[in-house]
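Worked example 4.2. Below are the chains of a multi-component assembly; read each line carefully before continuing.
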Amino acid sequence: MKKHLLSAGDLSREDAELVLHTAEELRSLADRPIKKLPALRGRTVVNLFFEDSTRTRISFEAAAKRLSADVINFSAKGSSLSKGESLKDTALTLEAMGCDAVVIRHGASGAPHRLANSGWVRASVVNAGDGTHEHPTQALLDAFTMWRHLGPRNGGTLDGQRIAIVGDVLHSRVARSNALLLHTLGAEVTLVAPPTLLPVGVDSWPVETSYDLDGVLPKADAVMMLRVQRERMNGGFFPTAREYSRRYGLDGRRMATLQEHTIVMHPGPMVRGMEITADVADSDRSVIVEQVTNGVAVRMAVLYLLLGGSEPAVGNPDGADA
Amino acid sequence: MPAPATTASPSSGVPDSRADRTVLDADDISRALSRISHEILERNKGADGVVLLGIPSRGVPLAERIATRIAAVEGSSVPHGSLDVTMYRDDLRLKPARTLLPTQIPDGGIDDKVVVLVDDVLFSGRTIRAALDALNDVGRPRAVQLAVLVDRGHRELPIRADFVGKNLPTSLVQRVRVHLTGVDDEDAVIIEGAAS
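Applying the procedure described above to all two chains together yields the following structure tokens:
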């Protein structure tokens, strides 16, 4: 793997499969009496969260701690950021204290890329979600969950599996990362959304698009529902919430049209009654809770592969200072 | 039957020190594993409470073979599995991150059991040290014993094997390769490189 994980598109098929296989071995750790491995002892991982998050931050924290790394949590609230400090000064502070990896979530698309390539820090940078751009570890955990459920009946790969990603694709970094990664792994992705919630330039993505959920569901092997990100909306993308649910929400009636083996996923946080009904979210097909468990194993795999071995890049060839 | 050896030419009597040398063939390996199996039973007065854990990759098929032999002698199966030590290695930081190998602890765990670690070659002893650390995180065995197919010497830690298939004096520049059917296409132990 490279030194940083900024985009799901940076991963080759070998890289992605290495992460999945490593995560598979690490998942069994949850069944052991001592849920800890010594691989990252003495390494420091900083969780740098400029945007709110429960799942992802806790997941990264658990992953780093189970690998025996030291974890420093840093959130925008209650830090000097609320006093107006810039990303650069924050980064220089972290560098001065010494850290080996920075897990960053930021509201601005491209912030992790800036951090990785500016020469402000020598640490590995892991993108934990930037604006409406990417969220590669979420895509890896989604792919891992699909691979565990669909792989055994498909020769151990996701080749040719049909994945439907439904909902607010426009504001979803999860959708973009998933589309890139699942394409790398050989799956066929269909994005289903109202025309107003598909991003400009979606025709250049390696995916199919559809406006008709009922037509896509019977063929899908996995269905991933996305939350409607109202906090990022300041216009009329659809007439009413009720109309959106009727056309693009997953309810019991639509679930009945799925194939026997099809799984239902959601990256969370979900809004029950909006994009997914409670009976679907709590049904046997739903692997939403398992996605969270898998998230820890996948993030352990990513941290191990980035930090576990010899220094990924001594002297930072990515241009420290000119 | 063997060719007449008494009139060997001068050159054939001395093994070519440059070439790879097969020191154990399939039959030798089979006999060594049978002896180790019996020794394990003798030492532990039967197979009760014995758990075999192979160290990937070659230790795992060896543990399976020993388990099969013990089952044939005792009439009851003995739990066996694998223990990956990658994350416990002391040279983890010296090389790029390595691929993890499967850890499979048999049902029933290892608490209060006699764990027999099984590996192909005992060399510096560092792998076994890592395995002891890894065991520590899995449970608390009553005792830990070590079975190896080949002991090539050159220990760097105070570790010794309880059951040894064959002691092979080697030089540090040589390499010892163990091939096992299932992983490779033959059963053999081969020394590569010249003896110095």
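Take a moment to check your reading of the output against the notes. The radius of gyration of chain A is 20 Å. Chain A has eleven helices and nine strands.
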